[in-house]
Amino acid sequence: MTTDSVPAGGDPRRLLSEVRGLARRVRADQRVTWFALLVLAVVTFVGIPFDWYFLVSHCVSDGTACQFSRQGVLYYWPPALLLAYVAIAVCYVRVARARGLGTRVLPYAITGVALTVLFIAAWVAARLYFPTHPHRFPDWVLALDRLIAPWGTIGVALLVLARLERNLGLLVFTLGYLTVALVPIDFGWHWQGQGIGTAFLPQQFINGTVLLLGAIGFALAGRRRR
Prior knowledge:
By secondary structure, the chain is mainly alpha-helical. It is built from eight helices and three strands; from the N terminus they run ααββααβαααα.
């Protein structure tokens, strides 16, 4: 046996703690969460006029059936989301390279693209199956519709990003966003306009605002950390 003391710098527990701390700092430096949320917020706000001008709504006189089609959702959202995920991936890669780090954003971008394709397939299938929409759908159908809609798939893809980044803050934010997008929560705001043609506006404004506030919050948190 020996009575030599172990140098403080060679303490295995301290070394392990330092390695874990370094890993956390690397993960934090890899994140550009604010940019992803900002891009998605912009996409959401820009989509509002497309949804407005290309919306088709006709109901029969007794109100038992309506033809309701948001054409702008198909014309705008698929290319907009694909471009958004490309922009987010490119930004993550450039930031990571500038900081001499790697990045794991590719699975997030692939998930976003896959969900966009799923949305297109579901939209086309619904269009073929429901040429004339019933006046009311069951609640579970409406919830599923909101989940596979662009604003729902944005949240699902963000869950993947939170997992990749091991970002608890983004996970909490995304669960809140999904709650607002899927319930939906309109905070009592009802658009006084042309009936069903404007019913989606409050929810879409709120979705975009939540994403924008999230982008501002994560940007300020990242600046404070530095």
